[in-house]
Amino acid sequence: MTNKLLGGIIIAMMLALPARADSPAEKREKIQVMREEVLAELFDQRPQARAEIDEAEGYAVFSNVGVQIFLLGAGGGRGVVRDVKSGSDTYMKMATASVGIGLGIKDFRAVFIFHSRDSLNDFIEHGWDFTGEADAAARSGDKGGEIGEAASVRKKVSVYQFTDGGLMLQASLHGTKYWQDKKLNRLEKSR
Predict the structure, then answer these.
(1) Of 17, 53, 94, 191, whose CA is between 20 and 30 Å from 27?
(2) What is the 8-class DSSP label of residue 173?
(3) 3-state class (DSSP) for residue 28
(4) What is the mean pLDDT of the chain?
(5) Helix (H) or strand (E) holding 81
(6) DSSP-assigned letters across all residues of 128-154
(7) How many CB atoms lie within 10 A of CB 127?
(8) pLDDT tens digit string along 101-153?
(9) Going by C-beta distance under 8 Å and a sequence separation of 6 or more, which residues neighbour residue 171?
(10) How far apart are CA 75 and CA 26, in angstroms?
(11) Which helix (H) or strand (E) element contains residue 93?
């Protein structure tokens, strides 16, 4: 692997990591605000999603920034899973890695709706998703953009994805790992 390519991958991964300057309380607050904004956009564009969430066992909302440079890509973000029945939140992190042809930066939001208790618990405890994807997304301000419904490998889960900004052209396989943010959850549960 050439030094330039390796350097580009390192820079891409650094850009994809969320800022670390915020306190845990500020991070939780930002995640809550992001969740409300994304749900408002989802309900505006797909009104039937509100009933889908009301009838579900739970849902998750994530914000992610991904970078694809030629054959390799990476991304990272945060989100929160809401157990609809208990009203409890579980804060989570996410990281993606991809291999495929592409170039660009993609800032997107995803909403997962869990239709069974097993799928909700499995996501919180194990949180792995692997998908194949071919997409093109472009947005600048209020122009362009996309909302997509994707089928996850997991059964009994609906997934909605929005682009929030950026430009991405790619055809790739993604590995995405979701895991609990123990620091944010520990502080939340100690309140």
Answers:
(1) 53
(2) E
(3) helix
(4) 74
(5) strand 58-83
(6) EEEEEEEEEEEEETTEE--EEEEE-SS
(7) 18
(8) 676 766 778 899 999 999 999 999 987 665 554 444 444 344 444 444 444 44
(9) 100, 101, 102, 133, 134
(10) 21
(11) strand 89-114
Phi-psi region of 171 (alpha: psi -120 to 50; beta: other; left: phi over 0): beta
The two tokens of residue 39 are 């749900």
Pairing of strands 128-140, 147-151: unpaired
In angstroms, rounded to a whole number, what is the distance separating the alpha carbons of residues 164 and 14?
A: 19
Domain boundaries, the chain: 3-189
The residue among 113, 112, 66, 61 whose CA lies nearest residue 91 is: 61
Q: How many CB atoms lie within 10 A of CB 108?
A: 24
> Which residues does residue 157 pair with via DSSP β-bridges, in sequence order?
114
Tell me the pLDDT tens digit for each residue of 91-109.
999 888 777 767 676 677 8
Distance CA 82, CA 191 (A): 17
pTM above 0.90, yes or no: no
Segment 30-40 shows an average pLDDT of 94
48-55 helix and 24-45 helix, angle to the nearest 10 degrees: 130
Q: Is 23 helix (H, G, I), strand (E, B) or coil?
A: coil
Helix (H) or strand (E) segment spanning residue 174: strand 157-180
Identify the pLDDT of residue 64.
83
Q: For residue range 155-175, what is the model confidence (pLDDT) as tens digits? A: 588 888 877 554 444 444 466
